[in-house]
Amino acid sequence: MVVGAGPAGSAAAAHLARAGVDVLLLEKSGFPREKVCGDGLTPRSVLQLVRLGIDIDTPGWMRNKGMRWVCGGHQVELDWPRLGTLPDFGLTRSRHDFDELLASHASASGARLRTHVKVTGPLTDRSGRVVGVAAVRGPEGEPVEYRAPLVVAADGASARTALGLGLVRDERRPVAAAARRYYRSEARTHDPYLELWADLRCPRTGHDLPGYGWVFPLGDGRVNVGLGALPQQRRRRPVDLRAALEHWLDRLPEEWGLREENADSPLRSAPLPMGLNRRPQYGRGLLLVGDSAGMVSPWSGEGIAQAMEAAEVAAETIALALARPAGPRREHALHQYPVEIQRRWARYFRLGDLAGDLVLSRFGFRPVLHPRVMASPRLLGVLARLLTHVSDEPAQDRVDALLHGILRLVPVPRR
Ligand SMILES: Cc1cc2nc3c(=O)[nH]c(=O)nc-3n(C[C@H](O)[C@H](O)[C@H](O)COP(=O)(O)OP(=O)(O)OC[C@H]3O[C@@H](n4cnc5c(N)ncnc54)[C@H](O)[C@@H]3O)c2cc1C
């Protein structure tokens, strides 16, 4: 059973169904529905879409060549690198369509999708093992129970299922916040680059924003504009995102049209749980995937790629585990899930947490995108791969070798 049909849940359900597992996917909303997001997909997300068998050549997908970084009056365009194991392009698509498409794909793959089912908590047996979930269904909130040998919690940042089992978040890991708004902008909607601004200010404090702003083209006449920020270390207070966004938008050229009269949605914000902030990712019959396990990257705020990648790992682990008899041998197989998640991201996220603590939350991105760095294509190339985790594994060029070498020096955090 999978709780939540966002990218993590729908990808997990699709992979499970494709592996021949009977899977129930429970979602509290109906589709289509909004999800507050920047709608930006890096090559890592594209890879996951391809692995799921989603046709990304149909209308509605907007391809991008790379990123455009803007800082201190300079701007640089960085194409996604040509790597052996990842696509060399990114995509955008509004979550309104994207999530519906993924959920339909899970359904078409054989998962039983049930919408308007809000899970209220896990059901446990006398030993404390999860044996299903309690939920309320439909407009009347009819109480129901669903039982399954394994439950995947993919219910996003609210993490209701995990919390029901007492899995609270690790307070030492950061939770950033981000806000976005859609605008109609013919001038920017077909931009071939994801544009990122690194020198934004918090107008109330005068400090640099400990994060960045984005303008992501959607190709349908709209752009997704927003900003994300870590809590400001020096003041230990959350940033006023609305004020920072308004201040930034005033700086942008009039002809882009990012003004109140062209707004196509309200400004909405949501938390970004980062750095694997909820553990264990497997225990007592419950696997945590995506935002419910805090899988957002502390380097960039990206979370869709990890949500879908972890979903695939979880599905593979479950399919292998279900091939064993219930009991210690199956449990042993299931415990490989957190092992694999740690192997992929623990060091990278730990280094990101450190960069966040020491630099980004104090001074923002401005010192990182120093004019000397902006003037050096080689340095920028390394930085871009570090920030977006776009590299081959095993390493196929010197940049990959350097990044992997640095990560090997980071102590492995506990599971
Ligand atoms: C403003 C903003 C901008 C962002 N921009 C980007 C970006 O450009 N690129 C990127 O990669 N990431 C971005 N992220 C992060 C990204 O949105 C998340 O990491 C991603 O959505 C995580 O996917 P998920 O499936 O784990 O959770 P979610 O997408 O939150 O999905 C959880 C699902 O579970 C359902 N659910 C919740 N509770 C229950 C319940 N009790 N019962 C049943 N169903 C339930 C929800 O309705 C939802 O469908 C952004 C986040 C924010 C806030």
From TrEMBL:
GO molecular-function terms, A-Z:
FAD binding; oxidoreductase activity, acting on the CH-CH group of donors, NAD or NADP as acceptor
Give the InterPro entries listed for this entry: FAD-bd (IPR002938), FAD/NAD-bd_sf (IPR036188), Geranylgeranyl_Rdtase_fam (IPR011777), Geranylgeranyl_reductase (IPR050407)
Which Pfam families would you find in this protein's record?
A: FAD_binding_3
Which part of the chain is the FAD-binding domain?
2-329
Under PANTHER family, the record lists: CONDITIONED MEDIUM FACTOR RECEPTOR 1, GERANYLGERANYL DIPHOSPHATE REDUCTASE
Name of the featured protein: Drug:proton antiporter
Instruction: Give the species this sequence originates from.
Output: Streptomyces showdoensis
